[in-house]
Amino acid sequence: MAPRLQLEKAAWKWAETVKPEDITHEHIELAYRIAVPACKRGTCRRNCKGNPNCLVGIGEQSWLGEIDENAFHSIDDPNSERRDKNTFVGLTNLGATCYVNTFLQVWFHNLDLRRALYLFQNSRAEGHNTDSGELKDYEPRTICEHLQYLFALLQNSNRRYIDPSGLVKALGLDTGQQQDAQEFSKLFLSLLEDTLSKQKDPNLQNVIQQQFCGQFSYVTVCNKCGRESPLPSRFYELELNIQGHKNLTECVTEFLKEEKLEGDNRYYCESCQSKQNATRRIKLQSLPRTLNFQLMRFVFDRQSGHKKKLNTFISFPEVLDMGPFLEGKEEECTYELSAVLIHRGVSAYSGHYIAHVRDAHTNDWYKFNDEEIEKMEGKKLQLGIEEDIAETAKSQTRKPKCSKGYHCSRNAYMLVYKRQTEEIEQTETIIEVPAFLQKLVDQDNKKFEEWCNEMADMRKQSVDKGKAKHEEVKELYELLPTEDGLSYEFVPLEWLKKWLDDSTSIKEIDNSQFLCSHGKLHPDKIGDVKRISSKAADLLFSRYGGVSRLGQSSLCRDCVTQRCRVIRLKNQLNEDYREVMNLVKSSLKSDESGFWIGKASLRSWRQLALDQLEEDEEETKHNNSKVNGEKSSRDNEDRDGEEMKNFNEDILCYHGGLNILENDRRVVSAEVWNKLRMYFPRAPEFTQNNEACQQCMRLEREGKENEALNRMMANEQKSSLLNLFQEKNRPTLQKWPQETDVLYIVPHYFVDEWRKFIRRPAKSNPVSNVGNSLLLCPHGGFMFTYDSMLNDAEKDSLLWPAEWEVISKMFLVDQAISICQIRDKTQDNDLCRECREGFIFQQQRDMREYAQATVYVRKVIDKKRESAPEFSVSGSDVEDEREEPKMDGEKDPDFSQSEVGAKRQKLNESASLSMAPVTAASKSGIRRSTRHRKLRGEKALIVSANQTLKELKIQIMHAFSVAPFDQNLSIDGRCLTDDSATLGSLGVIPESIICLKADEPIADYAAMDDVYQGKCCSCKLNFSYQYVSFPTPISAGGFLCSVFFCLFFLPSLYA
């Protein structure tokens, strides 16, 4: 089938030769593609969206082929949850409880432990027992009760796996966090032993000891007198070191090897009454029936400070003879391997636990992996697959060859051996579940069977319903294609797809989104609908309902006619464009009257015509798009009307008349204008004789007059206030002028705006008033003190009395503010203390909440070696920062801050209005730069208020090569010592100068050697350190030496 664009082009090809008034019904059917042949199955890979008759590839494949019952439901077969015959029951992993499941399976297969646990007296269960054979409202509470019930389910449950959440909850375990498996084994057996010891039955009291408990002694022998000192002890498992060993025998031998006690570790002998050299070893006295070997794979790594897993291969036998390791007792010491616990993974903090357990009845090996249980082939243990898991390229090592009867593993962390005895009778291996526990199991099996039946019924109902629906859909689909000459209707393509995909949840048929403004099917929407037979449409609407049925009469003649007109105009546009551009080049005749047209419109009229045609085409679209959630472009154009550009609107003024700017328009002939009117019938029309807008001309004349007045005003104000404009001969507070006692204040903002007007009177608005109220608080008080006016000169400006007199005449002044030098200390000024305190508090808070500010760190050198300070001034700053000759008694303020403060205090005593010390720059009349003057040995750092002192010290270490613990920082004489405090809380503000005094390097080589050995005499602690070499200049000659810094890593200081 032809592509969609070719179908659309063929549907409207007739419009190039047929006029809109000559359109027939055949043309309308061509536009709606009624006669396009329908596609056959197998010819289309996907549905032809441009062909309304194509009903292939819309989801019918699943209904026309063979029936698949699984497609009619999402319910798994309940029998997959049923336990197979002669298999064991698995345990659900609750998140990270695989280590619990492995131990439960191992203990369940310990027949003696299971038999003894069934004998546990459960009085609560007996109290719930009824004649009906059911235990109503019984729930296990204690750990033994949960373990009893769990073992009974593992033995006789019909489920493939059971949920151990009751026992896990009773133990208080976190199901989302993996615990230490070896530690869990110890604690659980200890808890179980404590609970069973309270039972009356002596066999039950000692069952844990009988099964798992052995005895050994720590025997210490004095080398001098030969006295033996045994210390007996019990064990439930032997913890064996595997590092450096290859097999289990080597591990046990190291566990029992002799240890020498010498030197500081000598043994105190009671016979000799003194410390003597001795030997110590472990002697095995007795072994339990079940011998557990814990292989210490998880060890502490001193370098990293964390546990790590040892992936060492260890071989172990199927039959183990412990006789050579026992001391002096002749008893059966042959053990047979019964379980191997495996840890998958390379990390000690993650991984997965599984168990390989030998069945005591059949001697078959099974792998227990939570819910999954796998029987090993034959009757031999197979660990090869487990060793390939979590193997990385770095840890790939060749597996050693194992002798017959031996196994080798790099992931086994616990080995369980069972003592060999004489042939056990078959009756002893059969363990009966107590009656009350069997009742609980039967109740659970009953619930499981009910659930299976319920799932099977639901599955069957879904299948039956699906089959019936399959026949229904198949029958309806065969009725969809329409035949020539018969009635038809249109339905949405997406609805048909959903109907064939999931017919049970289909909504009603809705054709409203495909309607045009005339209430019929829009031609542009023909690709979103399909044409079906009226018989099929009646069945679909009767079963599923719907609105806006579209039959044969829904083909819109008005939309087709409008589209035909647009197509013809688009085809004619290129020819008209060439003709218009040729006509424009020719000049008008003397007696011919032309029309005004905008130059910008003339340049882009073809694109504007295309936009206009598309706009007309858009008007034919459906008028109820908002109901269906679609926004038409016409709505967007109405909303964004200001952004639209209509033809010839560039010669319109704000009043709707002809623009006065003749350079933006030109005259064209009537022939050109008539051709353009075909495309822009609503364009504004102005003949050559039309006059420009009178209102715009009047405004232009007024603007020129105002511009002339502004220039005259600016010249007058500039001549009257020339010094203020040029910033010459300005009064200052540092040096009060002798010729006057009064100065006036105006906002600095007023002066800036006034200067802008003087410089560009034609482009700026004149300043009419002086807003001094900005400098006053709501209570009418002045907001600034003498010091604040010195520090922040950007808020106000000082005026001479003569300048104030001129300003008072030329501008409107809301409030006059003057200042004078007061010699009488008893006289108060007009400062509002309440508002001033709030203003100061706000300033202080701003200084404590800065970010990315600059502070200066100045390194202080010992006075004995201190040289004269030299300023580091760049070439661009030399002129502004030239050092002026100082008067007698005057010193550089960078070095004599305390003296400056003393001078300021002295002046305060002589006058109530504080006078600052007169600097050299002010005395000579030269303005001094306000930028910070950097000294030699001083560096700028970027800091924030929420940064800690510790972080600042690290920055200083990188800048000055001084270790943090050698830094002594101070600001304004205050020492900064709290490393955890923020800079804002310590009073460090932007532009602060922080003094750095570094501790002297160690000159005593003996003391330096002590430091290298990690000893600190001041704190009496040992530290770990690293040697870091910093090249440090130590003389003016440029000689460099490597100074070793001992960097101590203290968690409480510089982690």
UniProtKB/TrEMBL annotation:
This is Ubiquitin carboxyl-terminal hydrolase 48. It is an enzyme of class 3 (hydrolase). The chain crosses the membrane at residues 1034-1054. Its EC number is 3.4.19.12. It holds the Pfam family UCH. CDD domains: Peptidase_C19L, Ubl_USP48. GO terms for biological process: protein deubiquitination; proteolysis. It comes from Cyprinus carpio carpio. It is found in: Cytoplasm; Nucleus. The lineage of its organism: Eukaryota, Metazoa, Chordata, Craniata, Vertebrata.
